[in-house]
Write a structure and sequence with these properties.
It comes from Gossypium arboreum (Tree cotton). The structure is a single chain. Strands 2-4-5-6-7-8-9-10 form an 8-stranded parallel sheet, with helices on one face. It starts with a strand and ends with a strand. About 20% of the residues lie in helices and about 25% in strands. Helix 3 links the parallel strand 6 and strand 7. By secondary structure, the chain is α/β, with parallel strands linked by helices. The radius of gyration is 18 Å and the shape is globular. The protein has one domain.
Length: about 220
């Protein structure tokens, strides 16, 4: 299948995970939830998101994306305004030289965003880390969940950014494990989790957010 046409006036939720294809949204006036994953979103570039969303961007209330961070491509364009989006869930494949701050453009386009969930899976990179500086205020974001936190430069930078720029932040949950890692007995992962919690506690104390930060 190379093309998927969606003409469903009563469709409320859509999930697609698979090979890269062309999706044509002909009529989806009630679409409120969208999940996109698999090879279709191997990289977060204009090739899939921008042609897809503008026709119903103002309708979405929940968006879930599987994505690989590619900051060089992601900073080249602006996302469509997602004016009604309340919940954003990002399942991110990141390398230890990337900056998660490139995700802030998507957060910034979500004007009514209340809840952000970020799940991180990591891969090693042997290239030099590129520094990225961003300053944006997010006025409606109240709850943040980060799974797969390791306490490195990349995820710590992102946490600090949210603490400083999410004006109404009420709660940030940090979990060293992803959903798939829960309940495992791997000694290496257990040691990594202990180190991540120590660093999360350090950040909590340094930035004075003990009342907001929940370490799982």
């Amino acid at each position: 299948m190379k093309i998927l046409e969606v003409d469903a006036p009563n469709l409320l939720s859509l999930k697609y995970s698979g090979q890269s294809i062309e999706i044509r949204f002909i009529g989806v006036p009630n679409l409120a939830e969208l999940f996109i994953g698999g090879m279709f979103v191997e990289t977060c570039t204009r090739s899939y998101l921008l042609p897809l969303v503008p026709t119903f961007a103002s309708l979405l209330r929940k968006l879930v994306l599987e994505m690989r961070v590619d900051e060089r491509k992601m900073k080249l364009f602006e996302y469509p305004i997602l004016s009604q989006l309340k919940e954003l869930e990002l399942q991110v494949r990141a390398r230890d030289h990337d900056s998660l701050l490139c995700l802030t453009s998507l957060i910034n386009a979500s004007l009514s965003l209340n809840r952000l969930s970020l799940e991180l899976s990591w891969s090693k990179s042997y290239t030099r880390r590129r520094e990225m500086k961003v300053k944006r205020h997010h006025y409606n974001l109240k709850e943040v969940e980060i799974r797969g936190f390791v306490g490195g430069i990349v995820d710590s930078e992102f946490c600090i950014y949210l603490v400083e720029n999410a004006i109404l932040l009420e709660k940030m949950s940090i979990d060293p494990f992803t959903k798939n890692e829960k309940g495992g007995g791997n000694c290496f992962k257990a040691e990594r989790a202990r180190a991540a919690r120590v660093h999360a506690e350090y950040l909590s104390s340094k930035y004075g957010v003990e009342d907001k930060l929940v370490i799982l």
